[in-house]
Each structure stands twice: as C-alpha cells, then as structure tokens.
Queue: 2 jobs
Job 1
Amino acid sequence: MSCLFCKIVEGQIPSTPVYQDELSYAFADIHPQAPVHVLVVPREHIASLDGAEENHRALLGHLMHAAARIAQQKGLGKGYRVVVNTGADGGQTVDHLHLHVLGGRHMAWPPG
Ligand code: 5GP
Ligand code: ZN
C-alpha cells in the first residue's frame, strides 16, 4: 500500500486527529493555508472525486456532512470553505479523495 492518506488512516504515518467515524477520518493539514485547515478523507481508498462511483454517493454526502460538523466544532460560525481539488488542473497532489475545510480568515474569490 503506497498511498499516503491510506497510511495516515491506518496510523502508519502520524497525524493530528480532528474527527473520525466508521467511514471517515479527519486530520490537520501539515501545511495549513488558513488558521483552520483540516483534511477529511474516506477510510476507503478512492483516488479522486472523479474516481467516485455510483455506489459512493452516500459516502460523498457523509464526507460533506462531516466537514460541516468539523467546521462547527472548530467554531467557524462566520463561514468557511470546503474544497475538493481534483486532477492535475484542479491542483490535486495526493491521489486519495480529500475535502479541505478552511476557515478562520476571509476567503477570497475567485481562487488562484
Ligand atoms: P491537494 O493538493 O491534493 O488538494 O491536498 C493535499 C494536502 O495534503 C495538502 O494541503 C498538503 O499540505 C497535505 N499533506 C501532504 N502530505 C501530508 C502529510 O504527510 N500529512 C498531512 N497532515 N498533510 C499532508
Ligand atoms: Zn489511499
């Protein structure tokens, strides 16, 4: 198993846990881009949003809901951003589906 985030989910690579349940694991990003920067990943290896199948629909909703719970837990009542970089043009660098939860500062639009 060579996937970085699978290793983090399995505990083979240390991370700072933020939230976990039977389907997902969330941890602090190692290079935070905002005061709060959490990554939410499915325990199951899915390479990207583009690699999600029909049978992953409920899991995708689960991850979104987990992101909202984490934002609430982190006190991001003023707002936050959830990002799923997908593929090379989307800026994805780790090929295991993940949601970025970013907050604690104002987020500009459009993104870079
Ligand atoms: P992407 O660029 O694929 O959307 O996001 C990958 C994210 O994973 C980046 O924000 C990067 O900082 C984070 N990251 C990469 N390697 C590690 C690691 O070993 N531990 C943690 N906690 N985050 C990582
Ligand atoms: Zn993986």
Job 2
Amino acid sequence: MPRIVCLWLGLLLSFSGFGQSDQDFLIIPKPAKMEVLDGRFMFSNETTVRFPPDNAELKTLADPFIRQFQAATGFSLRTENRPGATPTATLLAFVPVSDANLGDEGYRLDVTTTTITIEATKPAGFFYAIQSLYQLLPPEIFRSTPADLSVNWSVPACRIEDKPRYGYRGLHLDVARHFFPVSFIKKYIDLLALHKFNTFHWHLTDDQGWRIEIKKYPKLTQVGSRRKETLIGHYYESDPQQFDGQSYGGFYTQDEVREVVRYAKSKYVTIIPEIEMPGHALAILAAYPEFGCSGGPYETATKWGIFTDVLCPYDRTFTFLQDVLTEVMTLFPGPYIHIGGDECPKISWKKSPFCQNLMKKLKLKNENQLQSYFISRIDKWVSSKGWKTIGWDEILEGNSPAIRVSPGATVMSWRGIEGGLKAARQNHDVIMTPGNFLYLDHYQADRSQEPLAFGRFTPLEKTYSYDPTPADLPATAQKHLIGAQANVWTEYLKTANQVEYMVWPRAAAVAEVVWTPLDQKNWPDFTRRLPALFKRLDALGVSYSRAYYDVVAETRPQPDGTLQIAMTTQEETAEIRYSTDGSTPTAQSVRYDRPFDLTKPTSVKAVTVKSGVVIGDVQVWDFAVSKATGKSIQFATIPTRPKNIDPALLIDGRYGTTIGYLEEMQNVAGVKTADLTATLDLAEPQSIQLVTIGLVKATAGAILLPKQVDVAVSDDGRTFRTVKTVSMDPRERGKKAIIRQTLTFEPVTCRYVRISARNVGKVPAGMTQAGKDAWVMVDEITVE
Ligand code: TNX
C-alpha cells in the first residue's frame, strides 16, 4: 500500500523498512504531492533513457542530465535508439501527456524498482521533473568529476505529482552597483533553475553603472559603465566619506546578453531586463547630460543612495529611451520589460522651467503627476510594441484618471506589501518583493559576526515564513497576484562569493514560498532538508551561508553579580562546543549542556558540531562583567533609539555595535538633543573607583561625542557628588566607532552611580550635519 506522505515524512522514513532512509526525499522546493513506495530504482551502465523519437525538445532537455550523470557517476546512460539496450535494464522514460491538472509547468514522476516515468504536458514540466530527480539522487550527482565508488546511485520508489503555486517565481540581481561576469550569471541561472524559479530579473542600469551595450548610444558603456571610485565601507562609515580611488566598471556586450538569454531559455528561465527611469539614472546623465534638467555636467555615482539628478521629461529623452528599449527588445524574449520607476526625487523637476511649463501645458497638479506622465508615456510606447511594462510600486503614485499607467502594467511591490495589495485590488498584476522578507541584501545573522551587508535583519526563517497571498484578499485581486521574487542589491556585495553567501540558502526558502502549496510548507521539515541542500551546494561550488547553524548567545545578568550565558542553535540535532580561554573551539572543546556563569569579563567562542564535525562558523563574543552586572539602571530622559528601550541593555554584558544603518545599531541607546543620564543602583554601598562607558561617534549621522562625561555618586539616590568629569570634542569626526571612555577616580563608597553624557545640542557649524539636532549614543556601562 502506498503511504501518503505529508508533513512529518522524516519521522516516517526513519523506521521504514522499505529501502528508504532519512537521506531520501530532500527535494527543495517541496513537491505538491508525494507518495513513498517500496524499494529503490538502481541506476547502472545498463539504464536506458527513452523519449519519443520525434521530440527534439525532450532530447535537448534530457541530454544535459545524461551528461551530468556521466560526469558525476562515470555511468553512461543509454538512449534507447542506441544499440545494446537490454530488455532487463532499468528505464527512464519521458512520456508527454495531455492533462490539464498538470498545467504548463507541472509533472508526474513515478519511480518503481525498474522504471522511472516522467509525464508532463509541456517541456518545462519535464525540466522540473529532472530537477526533482537530481534532488532524489545523492548530492554527489552535482559533482563535475566522478564521486567515489561507495555512492549508491539509486532513488527511492515514489510517486510525485507536482506543480507550482505561482506562475511567476523570480530572483533578481543588481549588476549595476557591482558587476558580475557572464560565467557567474550562468551559474546563478543554474541555481535558479535547479530550484524551479522561472524568472531572472536582471537589474542592468543604475546611478553607479550602465551595464548593457546599446549600439546607438555608445557612450552609455564608454562613459556610463565606469565610475571613478567607490565608497569604502558602509554609507555612514566615515565622515567625511572615504573612497577607494579605483576606477570601476564593466558591461555586457549584446552578444553576451544574447548568449545569457539563450542559456537561460535552455533552463526554462525567462530574463526580464530592467532599464531604470526616470530616477537612478546618473550613469545615463554622465554619458548624455542633455537628458538632465540642469544640463550637467554629471558623473556616474561613486556612492549609494538616492540622487536628485534624474531624467528630464524632454521629448528627446523619450526618443532616447525608446531607442534604447528598441535595442533591448531585440535581445530579450519578452513579454516583460522593467522600467524601474522607484525613488525618483522631484527636486530637479521643481527647479526646471521646462518641467514647470510642461506641467502647466498638461494641466498637472504636481511633480508626482509628472512622474506618472513620464511612466505612462513610456508604458504606452512599450505596450504599443506588444510588450508589457513592469515597474516598482511607485509607478502607481501620482496617477490620475487622465494620466495613469495602463491596466496591463505589472507592479513590483517592494515597500512592504500594502502597495502590492492595493495594486491587485485595482486589477494590476502584482509581483510581491517585500523588503522585510525577500531582500537578500539584509543581514541573515548576528551582524557583529557577519560580512558587511545593507542593514536590516532577515534571517532564513523569516524569509521562509512569507506567504505572498493574504487569506483575506478578495478572489478577484488574488488572481492578479502572480507571484513573488527575492531581490539582491549589491551595494555591499563586491564579489561573486559574497553574492552567493547572501543568496543561499535564503533563495531556497523563497523557492518554497513560490512553488510549494501552502499546506505543504513547513519550517521544521524545510530544516530537515537543509543539510542536503548544503551538500548539493558544496558539490556545485557555491559559497553559501551556514548562518542557520550559528550559535546564538543570550546574556542573563544574575542578582549575585554573575553573568549567565545561555546558548542555542536552530539545528537541534547538533551540539554546541565552546571555549572561554580565547582558543578557537573545535569538536573536542567543552560541550555546552546548560547555561554557565561568568564572573569576570570573558571572550566566549562557540561553534556547532554534528557527528564529531564542526558544521558552523565560529561565533565570538566579548562579554562584560562588572559591579554593574545584575543591578538596576534608570534613565533621566528615555532614549528614543532604539524604540521601546529596556534600560537594562546598558548593563546586560553585551557591547554594542554600530554596524549597519543608523537605526540598526545594536545594543546602544541614543537620546536626541538632551543629555544621556543613567543612574545605577548597586543595591548596597560598595567601594568603586572606575567607570567605563562606550560613546558612539557617527558624525555623518549626527551622532556626536558628548561634550562632557561625568560620574557622580550618592548614598541615598537623591544627593549626588561629582567624582569625575572628562571633556571631549564633539566635533571629532573620522571613522564611525564606539569609543570606550574610562573614568577613574579616588576609591569611594556609594550605593548609586550616575553617569551623564552631555549633549552638545545642535550639530556645530562646519560639520556634515551642521544645524541638525545632535544625538548622544552610548553602549555598555561597567563599574569597578
Ligand atoms: C532600494 S528596492 C532600492 C535599491 C537599493 C535597495 C537596497 C528598490 C526598488 N530600490 O535601489 O539598492 O533599496 O536594499
């Protein structure tokens, strides 16, 4: 009797005596339906592949599988029309069927002990069946050289019937901020296809570089593909900002683009090119200043963000864009072209007499309507060529009954989900790409342990949890929600390895979001399949992130003044090993069984270990332990960064970090314009002689050193006497940092300690943020 396999497949398999094991059925994205059968299908040199003789497309589809199989296993599968196939040999058969249930991308994969039968209505379905077959095989199948002889080249008998939840399943890559060569783009597409994505959104142009050859406008690549240098580190890293002084550039020739498009097609991936307008267009303006309102000169951007110089809606600008899009249309298959539309400041239009006249002539009320005019004029032209427009959700802004994008325009919803849902209710097709779930440039783990990234925090589980279609969306709007896409912006991703690190495994979670039916989606079951994914990615040479295995440490200050450390890792079947002596932990280090206490400042390092092998990256923390540990603390003015602050954050044993954008600094407390004053209650009189406090300096973000820090003590918490005052210069600029200030004084016995960091108030003249309200921000306070 076949068993219906539902959520807890792993449990079922672990005691099944039918030749399957928990190494089986590790397909990502999880198929819609899967039944486990008895026995296994063994591949051998005698296995024959059969497809209808007159079906060239199926042969083209099967050939790469046969080649890869040979490379990894050393077996050469026979195709049936080759002589010598024996009737007893096992058979892999491709059988076209007509079955409306399967749709264009669905398939059935029937595995018995002697035969694998793949049924589908369209080539894409066969292609996805092969991707599932790869993943039923051992991960070594992805090797480019034969694996060792011990690998069992078999697949478990089963019956899979599968089709995608959404028709649009996308992954994006920004090649403008950093450029990636054709070889990498092909590898990226390989991985997309393996996880049953069908769309690659190629973000080809932006302020920092134009990356596609346009024959009619050679300066786009001659000038616009290069920038003279690049910002070092994070946006607010240094004040003034520091640049690397290295010219940077790159672009794809039209031949290369054609080659990539052809390659993607062979993997059933459609490429959508994005040509950004009217904002994010500095690279165009650098090459052709006549399309800007001020006439220039302009230069290709050397840092990130939003720039006020944008395309000016002259007729000649539209002629230029139409010419560019005409060439783009000869290179890509269609039907979609992405025209950007996001983050277009209106400042240059406000200043431009041309724009103001145009607005009058067109009876436009404001510059938002001018943006709408811009987008709808291009959209109309694109539609007239039989193509479909996609734009970021801003393309609906400023629409009026008179001037609006065509109903056929598709909206990519990136600023949360509301814009997308609204567009769907207005009957626009919508692709969901909400930043807080699907932006893979965000951190996926503790930022203090990670390579530099854009800022926010979107761990694997958060990405996995995303459901594009809210249950309460009316059915008429639901049908417009055609799918979802993860975006990969590359401001901080300079190398191919860094891109892969950010994308995998999170893109595998996205694959399951867009392919797997909601009732089959299950986080614990996904994590059961993760180790297999990692092995596949190892075999494919992908630099994925192991953050899923990271040890997470929690500090728990105790009333007795010790600091308890509790550690966890998401991978429950793994052990945690750690050290407290500064050494790198190994599989032989102390095993973590229960929380432990620190009595002095300590560097703790930890790692996850499975079957005696280290599987995660080493995590390192320096914990503070002092007379402040386990005591209580109060603020005179409640800090507003972070929101809803717990004052104990300043004595929780954890130092802060300034990594990320200003709002994303961790374990720091900030007050605007006022002083930051914290009073510690040491519970009983104690002798103290030293206080340390971390002072954040990020002057580009108006976070200044205080003009003075003082320490005062008290016996009753009411009358304080100052024991130490240190002055400093709030105008000190330079690299963003947390500066640890040590304040020593004659030993004094007291119960209360008050530390004040005095705010300069307004940012002094001559500084980057001159005149703005200044912040004082501090991290961990220690007392000795
Ligand atoms: C916003 S998402 C942008 C991009 C940036 C990204 C960084 C979108 C349509 N615009 O230009 O690269 O944030 O996450």
